[in-house]
Design brief:
The chain is mainly β. It is built from no helices and 5 strands. A hairpin with a 2-residue loop joins β2 (30-38) and β3.
């Protein structure tokens, strides 16, 4: 798969609605809810949604080159039981 342009610049990956992404700097897994132009901002952008550590739904705009694709499913071994609330 070709991942670089002729000039040597990296071509940003194309993301679609429903893709799961994560910031390259780390953070939560997010779902892409929009991919394309955004008013007053040149170029294409991603609008992503995720739940923060308090369970609140968050939404933010990101440049496609600032995120990386994540697998859609989460391996069972990655679940942290200490964070999941238990009924008394």
């Amino acid at each position: 798969m070709l991942t670089a342009a002729i000039d040597g610049f990296e071509t940003p990956p194309a993301f679609n609605i429903g893709d799961v992404v994560k910031l390259k700097d780390g953070g939560s897994r997010m779902t892409v809810t929009y991919a394309g132009p955004v008013a007053l901002n040149p170029g294409d952008w991603l609008i992503c949604e995720w739940f923060d550590e308090h369970g609140e739904l968050r939404r933010e705009i990101f440049a496609p080159h600032s995120v990386r694709a994540e697998p859609r499913s989460i391996p069972a071994g990655s679940v942290q039981w200490s964070r999941i609330g238990r009924a008394a």
